[in-house]
């Protein structure tokens, strides 16, 4: 079974393609994560966990869920990471998670996708040509990854140097505390109060008050709310003004 979380469609694409090629089922974990549902997920085929990369590792909410959820049936687990180009120490953490849960780690793969992080000027949104090129390349990477999984092989990810892990692990909590805040989120008058942003937030961090979204303090900057808004009504300070919202379906079908 292919398990995934996706905020703007990149990881969903990879997960569903792998499920199609391997003749398996893809399960969106969003509602299970939102409701802290750790009940058994059973699969007779190897599990394939598809996750985006946030701040050089598996998102905290995803790691917490995977540590607690009961995976039954097959003990083999593959990991597939989607990122803008760097998966940090994610493979090290994935291998450690499998060891703690008594699972058999079958390796990981990195799928390079278009960037979706518009709440920072450090990561400029790519132009249309670059996005299409990345998606075409990602399709090939995904097919190759799925073929290895279908044959029961081992996915070979890049080597993670010790210094990367030593830098990333203490750095991430500080970055989350200082940078992944919600203070700059606001909505324009064009907001129609549809509540889509609240339904897509993996942390249950958005409430609809008087037909408008209100953000709590917890945030992972997944971009699900801002990029999926049907009216482009959500902004993050001045940083997102005038920026195109990225969704995979706009480019990849």
What do the pLDDT scores average to?
Answer: 96
| Biggest sheet character | 5 strands, parallel
N-to-C CA distance: 23 Å
* CA-based shape: globular
Q: What is the structural class?
A: alpha/beta
Describe this structure as you would to a colleague.
The protein has helices at 10-21, 30-34, 60-68, 90-101, 128-150, 162-179, 196-200, 224-228, 248-252; strands at 2-4, 26-28, 41-43, 47-52, 71-73, 76-83, 104-112, 185-187, 206-209, 212-215, 234-236. By secondary structure, it is α/β, with parallel strands linked by helices. The protein has two domains: 2-163, 3-Layer(aba) Sandwich (Rossmann fold), CATH 3.40.50.360; 179-252, Alpha-Beta Plaits. Strand 9 (206-209) and strand 10 (212-215) form a beta hairpin. Helix 1 (10-21) runs parallel beside helix 5. It starts with a strand and ends with a helix. The model has no long low-confidence stretch (mean pLDDT 96).
Question: What's a quick, concise take on this entry?
Answer:
The chain contains nine helices and eleven strands.
Topology:
Layout (H helix, E strand, L loop, with lengths): L1 E3 L5 H12 L4 E3 L1 H5 L6 E3 L3 E6 L7 H9 L2 E3 L2 E8 L6 H12 L2 E9 L15 H23 L11 H18 L5 E3 L8 H5 L5 E4 L2 E4 L8 H5 L5 E3 L11 H5 L1
Parallel strand pairs: 1-2, 1-4, 3-5, 4-6, 6-7
Antiparallel strand pairs: 8-11, 9-10
Helix pairs in contact: 1-5
Looking at this protein, list some descriptive labels.
253 residues, alpha/beta, Alpha-Beta Plaits, 2 domains, 5-stranded parallel beta sheet, two-stranded parallel sheet, 19% strand, globular
């Amino acid at each position: 079974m292919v398990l995934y979380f996706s905020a703007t469609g990149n990881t969903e694409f990879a997960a569903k393609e792998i499920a199609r090629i391997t003749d398996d089922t893809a399960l969106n974990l969003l509602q299970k994560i939102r409701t802290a549902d750790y009940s058994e997920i059973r699969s007779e085929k190897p599990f394939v966990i598809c996750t985006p990369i946030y701040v050089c590792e598996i998102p905290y909410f995803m790691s917490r869920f995977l540590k607690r959820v009961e995976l039954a049936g097959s003990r083999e687990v593959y990991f597939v990471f989607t990122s803008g180009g760097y998966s940090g120490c994610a493979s090290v953490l994935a291998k450690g998670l499998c060891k703690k849960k008594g699972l058999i780690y079958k390796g990981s793969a990195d799928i390079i996708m278009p960037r979706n992080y518009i709440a920072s000027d450090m990561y400029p949104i790519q132009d249309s040509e670059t996005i299409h090129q990345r998606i075409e390349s990602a399709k090939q990477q995904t097919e190759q990854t799925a073929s290895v999984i279908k044959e029961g092989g081992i996915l070979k990810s890049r080597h993670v140097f010790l210094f990367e892990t030593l830098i990333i692990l203490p750095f991430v909590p500080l970055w989350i505390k200082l940078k992944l805040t919600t203070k700059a989120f606001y909505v324009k008058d064009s907001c129609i109060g549809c509540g889509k942003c609240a339904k897509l937030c993996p942390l249950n961090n958005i409430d609809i008050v008087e037909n408008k979204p209100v953000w709590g303090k917890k945030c992972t900057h997944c971009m699900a709310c801002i990029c999926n808004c049907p009216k482009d009504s959500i902004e993050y300070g001045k940083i997102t003004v005038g920026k195109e919202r990225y969704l995979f379906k706009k480019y990849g079908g």
